Amino acid sequence: MQQEALQEITAADTLEALQAVKTKYVGKKGLITQQLGGLGQLPPEERKARGAEINVVRQAIQAALDEKEGTLKRAALDAKLRSEAVDVTLPGLGLPSGGLHPITRVYDDLIGIYRQMGYAVVEGPEVEEEHYNFEALNVPWYHPARDLQDTFWLEDGRLLRTHTSPMQIRYMVDHEPPLKIVVRGKVYRYEATDATHESMFHQLEGLVVGEGISMADLKGTIAEMARGLYGPSAKVRFQPSYYPFVEPGADFAVYWDNPRGESKWLELGGCGMVHPNVFKAVDDLREQAGKDRIYEGMTGFAFGLGPERIAMLKYGIPDIRYFYANDPKVMGQFRGELG
Ligand code: FA5
């Protein structure tokens, strides 16, 4: 029995297997325990010798069990330590980095172009007074143009600006001409969304006011922007259009000549010469604030465009809603490229 037990102990290569051997021989109902239990049936003179014999076997088995248990436990601990050890030769995991949103990149491009032309960059409130968003821009309450820009109204009578044009008014009330500004920021319209329309989107507004500013300056500026965006061969197109705050007014498009073979005219925004009623509204507000009337008789041009349109073509994004859906599959492609 001792020999068999020792063989089984040698063969046990896991702690579980060893436990089974232990139970088999020295457990409560093990073979050795049974032998000891059987001593009572022997004649008293044989018991002592037999008992001593069984004990020797038991001790031998127990010693072998203890030794093997120690060996197996050390091996298990070694394996655990090896698996947890740091392998300094492995490449690092790296931290996922963020990146600039495509709209931010387009803004950076546009604003870089306008800074070079000497424009100041300003921002304005997204919650706006009705007067600045509409009336002062020559859009009285009964004007049909209000229907073109469906409005989110606040309970207090203010609204979410439907375009960046109200900053034209705010800036002129606070500053004297000559001036050259671009306005960046979010605008909101209460309208059904589709692949090219969002209810929140961005605009870049431009305003230049001084003496003797002409339509030629406006066209030259838009052409300069197009060349800055698309290189020296960029083309621009103007088509007559109507906006109450400019006269004459136009829509402008830029020819997109792109390596993916998607060349086409890209309708970018509206523009025109600042309407005299806008200058008058600014002077009225200035007067109310105790300032001089200085805008009547001035000339100027303004434009407003949507950077989403540029970004969609530039980055091949087919649906405007991807920009604000926070889908990592889309925005993750802009990781790490800071610019
Ligand atoms: C305006 O908002 C005028 N304030 C622009 C302007 C400024 C004209 C100064 C003259 C002088 P319009 O509603 O067309 O115009 O919007 C301008 C641009 O914003 C559009 O050409 C388009 O690029 C973008 N845009 C308009 N609506 C949406 C929309 N729902 N989603 C995404 N982009 C839009």
From TrEMBL:
Cite the EC number: 6.1.1.20
Domain (Aminoacyl-transfer RNA synthetases class-II family profile) spans 113-328
Which cofactors must be present for this protein to function? Mg(2+)
Q: Which reaction does it catalyse?
A: tRNA(Phe) + L-phenylalanine + ATP = L-phenylalanyl-tRNA(Phe) + AMP + diphosphate + H(+)
Where is Mg(2+) annotated to bind? 247
Give GO MF terms, alphabetically.
ligase activity
Question: What does the note under cofactor report?
Answer: Binds 2 magnesium ions per tetramer.
- Hydrolase: present as a keyword of the record? no
UniProt keywords (A-Z) are: Aminoacyl-tRNA synthetase, ATP-binding, Cytoplasm, Ligase, Magnesium, Metal-binding, Nucleotide-binding, Protein biosynthesis
Query: What InterPro entries would the database entry show?
Result: aa-tRNA-synth_II (IPR006195), aa-tRNA-synth_II/BPL/LPL (IPR045864), Phe-tRNA-synth_IIc_asu (IPR004529), Phe-tRNA_ligase_II_N (IPR004188), Phe_tRNA_ligase_alpha1_bac (IPR022911), Phenylalanyl-tRNA_Synthase (IPR002319), tRNA-bd_arm (IPR010978)
Q: Provide the protein's localization.
A: Cytoplasm
What family is reported?
Belongs to the class-II aminoacyl-tRNA synthetase family. Phe-tRNA synthetase alpha subunit type 1 subfamily.
Question: Subunit info?
Answer: Tetramer of two alpha and two beta subunits.
Q: What is this protein called?
A: Phenylalanine--tRNA ligase alpha subunit
